[in-house]
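tool_log.txt
---
The assistant was asked to compare two proteins side by side. It first ran the structure predictor on the initial sequence, then on the second. Raw inputs and outputs are pasted verbatim so the downstream comparison step can read them without reformatting.
(1)
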Amino acid sequence: MRARITWGAAIAALATLAACAKQEQAKPAAGAAAAAPTVVTIHAKDFAYVAPDSIAAGWVTFHLINDGPDLHHATIFRLDSGKTATDLEAALKTPGPIPMWAVALGGPNAPAPGQSFDATVSLTPGNYLMVCFVDIPGGVPHFVKGMVHPFTVTPSTVATAAPVPDDSIALQDYGFVFSKPLTTGHHEFAVTNIAQQPHEMEIVKLAPGKTAEDVVAWIQKPVGPPPGDPIGGAAFQAPGTTEYLSVDFTAGNYLFICFVPDAKDGKPHFMHGMMHTETLN
């Protein structure tokens, strides 16, 4: 698997993109502090979301609770050019790349059943759709089974601020760029896709004695207990987007992995080396 790298150019691009993302939101009146992100709770089950139909614009923290026996995540798509959820649902059923008018902003990646995970993204007014691409078990993406939820983002007069990160991670073709060594404890990560194609980041705490290869083998044939506990992470992100993750690390071995199909050959990105293990003491 690919070793961790910390290229200065990648970190500079990460900082620039994160700053631009913050500037997209309305500025508060002089002397007024911006509010914290709006918190929206999503309940995920087999195979549907329970979530609001309308959300106010600004920075929004999606709190995903996995109520189902299977893994689920929530990729948030902004639909441009007057497109609707019906248009994207139809496009997803057709082989080929996701249309340019559907912008994947990220969202909370898959926590283990019974667990939750938080991810914060910037929403502007318009039409949106949350989608689950997880295909375990059976190899059929959950959106095919109806796991989609359209919602509308309405204008807001309240300015909200992005979380203040203490660490940054960049997604590139094909790897993860960490701005500094990872440590145990609570972290707020800014995660930016600096690549030329979409990526995601799922974090798995490996079971004792298990490896990244064990996780890959189990995903391809999910028989018996999983070789690790999925924590969550950054769901499917388009190039140039930034989201923020709240993560708590305890001591142990962790896997960072991307399952997005490659734009050129269709292979999941971990087959191109986009997986990384980290040991935290």
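(2)
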Amino acid sequence: MPVKQVQSALVSTLLAVLLTGVGGVWQTLAQERAPVSKVKDGILDEIQLYAAKLPSTTRVVMRPFSATDADIVTGDKKDATKTMQADGARILGNRFVTKLKEFGPFTDVSVVGAEVTAPTGSLVVDGKFTELDPGSRAKRYFVGFGAGKSGVTVSGTVKTSDGMLLASFEQRRIGVMGAAGGDSLGKLAGDAESIGEDIAKFLSAWAKDKKLK
């Protein structure tokens, strides 16, 4: 690399240190690095691991998954969607906490507010809903064969309490049947619960060095 480019890079790094602190620079560099492995269609639809192993800890916190209009990029904004935008994070989070405690090895699992500082040494799960589509109950009932299916999709990350990225993930659940086509809101709520459990299974399996696929 030419001397001038090296000097420019050093100056940029020093400025970044002065503006954001060493920790902020390290966090940025960590998040820009390539994943060490990728897993598709396993415990979750897609997992990217940025560390071979999880740090040793018993504490995991989840921040409420956001579900704003900007987050929800697919599906019509129907009444069931709007209800889930308000309730989805709670439904997913409660299931996640219950099931991760059950699966282990983590014993201290909780949901904390978006602005609450994560406890030192904890793992932090954060994310957003990108789909809350109630589908069509009529199509599920009269047409079947996957027509009118509902869908819930999330994307998220697992980080250390100081912000180092450990993993990113995506997961989708769909509802295709049910009595008289199935209640759309009930299907969305059930899918959100299932995704909370899916994320718990992922973290538990990774912590126990089990296969993720």
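---
observation on (2): The domain at 34-207 is CATH 3.40.50 (Rossmann fold). Strands lie at 37-40, 46-49, 59-62, 108-111, 123-133, 150-160, 165-175.
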